[in-house]
Structure to design on (34 residues):
């Protein structure tokens, strides 16, 4: 279950990054895949 929600979170972050370039810069500094 945890892995599934992590996957969904990553997918959400990626789609948000595409829609909002501001957050893309923040996410590049933050490791998502830990």
């Amino acid at each position: 279950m945890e892995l599934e929600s992590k996957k969904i979170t990553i997918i959400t972050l990626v789609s948000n990054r595409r829609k909002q370039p501001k957050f893309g810069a923040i996410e590049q500094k933050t490791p998502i895949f830990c």
